[in-house]
Amino acid sequence: MARFRNAEDEDRIIHLLRLGLDLKEIGVGFSVHFPREHEVYLTVAGAGHNRRIMAARSGDDWWFTWGPGPDSWVRAFDENAAISLLDGIA
Fold this sequence. Notes:
- The protein is about 30% helix and about 25% strand.
- The protein is an alpha+beta fold.
- The protein has one domain (about 5-90).
- The protein has a three-stranded antiparallel sheet. Strands 1-2 form a two-stranded antiparallel sheet.
């Protein structure tokens, strides 16, 4: 059985997988990466989408981030997070 460093790591993975399933539902492919030395991240399939999508916690909120600044963040629990993310990385 997989063991993660802490509960926050598990939450991060769950958020990214949930986002991936939302992307799949709207016809967008994705990959989740588990690098040995860094945090898990998601990538979106398609030309021009070579960005790492991270799940980050800030206080009690979780966010998907793909760059610096608030224009590159979307709340993880937003109903349309996947669509907002795709608009943001386009």
